[in-house]
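re: the backbone from monday

yeah here it is again, tokenized this time
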């Protein structure tokens, strides 16, 4: 199967995803967090903590100790660079022409001057900061509520809307159009970025997972408040922080390309 028909097949499933979304749990109007699946979520949380304790935390510490910071930064830049086409498509879907144009120029600059994303001259020399976006953001712009809180095994915290958005992001990866091995390339380049994120955010993540009385409740609150903050258009504030950004999902999203979407 060629790349374009594969992507068209994925796009054809978007109405089904949207239909599923209409069945999501209603978002509480009082600002609380809907969590009807707490028992199941806590099991996923325990699995994620075990995976972090057994692998991600020690691996990230080893990676940070042996890999020079400029090398780590460049490898993470490549992973972020490969997400720019997804952001471009979602900016268009949201009707945000300004951010779409900004992202397109940023991608072009970093592809050429930045040596295919190894460096980020777009942000440093051209003042083109990253404006990432995904289908979860697009659904929010279209008026979809967040639904119930979810903690996904190995993917970390989410909610019903963003979980559907993540599936669509994976299934309709724009890299599949420009390169037959686009999804595999994205998955292969993401692993150093995952380790680097875990290493650089180590104290914050450890504080939530291992130093709080109830790490599940703490992570649920932190993720939900930060996600709402991002969608309010204030994500550039200094205290906006997502401890799971590019942490687990990048490692495993390549596995979904093997499924028959």
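seq for it, each position gets an aa:
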């Amino acid at each position: 199967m060629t790349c374009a028909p594969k992507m068209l097949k994925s796009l054809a499933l978007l109405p089904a995803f949207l239909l599923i979304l209409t069945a999501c749990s209603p978002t509480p109007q009082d600002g609380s967090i809907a969590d009807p699946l707490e028992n199941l979520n806590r099991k996923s949380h325990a699995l994620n903590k075990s995976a972090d304790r057994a692998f991600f935390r020690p691996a990230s510490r080893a990676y940070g100790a042996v890999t020079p910071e400029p090398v780590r930064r460049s490898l993470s830049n490549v992973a972020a660079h490969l997400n720019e086409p997804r952001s471009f498509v979602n900016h268009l879907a949201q009707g945000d022409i300004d951010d779409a144009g900004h992202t397109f120029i940023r991608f072009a600059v970093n592809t050429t001057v930045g040596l295919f994303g190894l460096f980020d001259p777009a942000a440093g020399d051209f003042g083109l900061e990253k404006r990432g976006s995904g289908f979860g953001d697009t659904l929010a712009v279209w008026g979809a509520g967040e639904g119930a809180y979810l903690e996904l095994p190995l993917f970390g915290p989410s909610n019903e809307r963003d979980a559907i958005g993540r599936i669509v992001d994976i299934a309709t990866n724009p890299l599949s159009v420009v390169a037959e091995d686009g999804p595999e390339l994205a998955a292969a380049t993401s692993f150093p970025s995952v380790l680097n994120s875990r290493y650089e955010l180590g104290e914050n993540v450890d504080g939530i997972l291992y130093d709080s009385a109830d790490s599940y409740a703490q992570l649920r609150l932190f993720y939900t408040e930060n996600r709402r903050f991002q969608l309010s258009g204030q994500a550039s504030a200094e205290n906006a922080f997502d401890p799971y950004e590019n942490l687990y999902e990048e490692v495993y999203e390549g596995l979904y390309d093997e499924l028959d979407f």
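The first strand starts at residue 149 and ends at 152. The two ends are 12 Å apart (CA to CA).
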